[in-house]
Amino acid sequence: MRVLEREKLAGAWVGHLPSAFYRDPTAGNTELLALLDPHRDVLHPVPVVRPDWPGWEKELRRARDASAPAIRVYPPQWGLAPHDVPMRELAIAAGELGMALVLTVRFEDMRQRHPMDVSGDLSAAAIRALARAGEEVRLVISAAGREMIEEVHWGLTPAEQSRVFWDISWIWGPPEDHLAKLFRTIGAHRFVFGTQWPLRLTQNPRANLDLLPDDLRGARLADVRDVCSAASHVVR
Amino acid sequence: MNQPLAGTEPLIDVHAHFFHADAGRSDWAEVNAARLRAGERIGITYHVASVLGSYGFSSPTYFPSPGDVGTGNDAMLEIAARERERVRMYVTVNPNYSGHAIGEIERCADRGAIGVKLLASRRADDSVLDPIAELAGARGLPLLHHIWQHRRREWPSQEISDGADLARLAVRHPGTTFILAHIGGGGDYAHTFAAVADVPNILADLSGSGVDRGMLDEALATLGPRRLLWACDITMETGLAKLRALEVIGLGAEVLADIRWRNATRIFAEGAFPKARTAQPALQPSLR
Predict the structure, then answer these.
(1) Minimal C-alpha gap between B254 and chain A (Å)
(2) Considering chain A, what is the average pLDDT of its residues?
(3) Are the beta carbons of B208 and B183 closer than 8 angstroms?
(4) Integer Cα distance of A182 and A191 in angstroms
(5) C-beta atoms surrounding B160 within 10 Å
(6) Which residues pair with A191 in a beta bridge?
(7) Segment B116-120 mean pLDDT
(8) CB-based contact A143:A105 (threshold 8 Å)
(9) Best residue in A211, A214, A215, A216 to probe B by mutation, most B CBs within 10 Å?
(10) Which chain B residue has the Cα nearest residue A179?
(11) Which of B141, B148, B99 is nearest to B119 (CA)?
């Protein structure tokens, strides 16, 4: 809450980081909902739903009942292949409830990972497969870089592209100007504000926007309330 | 003109790069212009920069041929001369070609280079580097060394070094100042801090695309603000973000000034940064 106020952020979609590594994320979701309960006007829970764990449908409904705008999934950490059928079913089910899927490309740079952390980055193929799963599917991809974004975007039909949003937490700014190039080629409307805090500094995405070239200073990111119907109630 | 995003106090980026026409990319001039554009917006007073050979076009980035080293240094000399109000130069060398490296350092320092840049062409603690470190110390040229924070294995396309490797070289050359590159450039920075904490002639630059929460706090706690140098390398937005984070940490104006520019003026040659003059404390022998 203190960081949100300091950074002048009206709200945040909040996940429960340890749950990415839980076999059964139910307890993590319970903890997340309890932690956020006093701050639900600005902190919006994004619980984890694991489609290879029995009873995931019940956990998805619990997320919906908690007014979660989205759920988090971690296919690499769970050892799920890019075309995993249960993951596809979960994406469709969440979409039918108006909820997005949040996928994380990486928690940290590959070079600093612990030797026991062998799951690797989320693949572009996995994102493309989910974007093609159904019309109601909505994806928010966190911590992707330019190459990943371009590989996915230009490998989808325009209709499929419209189902995918990218946060700007790990896109390079100047002098390579990856963010500017993506805004010009793909459009700022496909991107949402994201910090990946506490894994990355909250100051980074705003610094990136502040350093856009002059012709992009007025670029507007997507309104997070337009990502999916379950997000329509969250603060801008 | 709007106020610079990082304020009007002097600001020195000690780890920057420029490109040139033989670097194998058609947008080289745009990238150079983008660095200067973003530098103006941030409020960077000086970019201390190097050119890394041909950046892989005609020899590998981290193992540049002597020919590419010379071409790159010529390009950097030209940029530093053209942008003398805001650009300073490191001379890049490949230590495997010792005679050529010594010659390049002499040639470029005579024409205004203020530091030496080493890549990952040879492990930092190898004796092959000794003549270069010795000459850098003798001429008062800080030596910026590319570093991977805690190397646990060999990695393709570079003979990478970490803080422990650099520390062994620095201990052998106490009269030379070393800049450990980009603590945010990948790897385990906690290993680096432990490896160099007791080697006072190593300062760390803050650059790199990594902006992990806690990295700056640990750097301050372990090395102290007098051994940290602000820098961007190839992600200037992370440089601006780190400056803003340092302010949030609650550092005083004097400490921030040390990191922003004053430490740089202490280790580089007197007069290298005329727009960042200040009353200087006595220089520590180990930092020159």
Answers:
(1) 22
(2) 96
(3) yes
(4) 9
(5) 22
(6) A166
(7) 98
(8) yes
(9) A211
(10) B237
(11) B148
Q: What is the pLDDT of residue A30?
A: 98
Would the ipTM clear 0.85, i.e. be above it? yes
| Residue A173 to residue B237, Cβ atoms within 8 A | yes
Cβ–Cβ gap A201/B241 under 8 Å? yes
The residue of chain B with its CA nearest to that of A112 is B187
Question: Any idea which residue has 């910026």 for tokens?
Answer: B144
* Pairwise CB contact (< 8 Å): A112 & B41: no
A and B: number of Cβ contacts within 8 A: 97
Smallest CA–CA separation between B177 and chain A, in Å?
Answer: 27
Which residues of chain B does A210 touch, with a Cβ-Cβ cutoff of 8 Å?
5, 41, 240
pLDDT for A127-167, tens place per residue? 999 999 999 999 999 999 999 999 999 999 999 999 999 99
pLDDT of residue A125: 98
Q: B186 with B212: CB under 8 angstroms?
A: no
State yes or no: pLDDT of B279 exceeds 90: no
- Residue B188 has φ and ψ, to the nearest 5°, of -100, 95
Token pair of B177, please?
A: 């100042």
Coil, helix or strand for A71? strand
This model's pTM is above 0.90: yes
- B92: amino acid identity, one letter: T
Is the pLDDT score of B255 beyond 90? yes
Cβ–Cβ below 8 Å for B237 and A198: no
CB contact under 8 A, A208 and B149: no
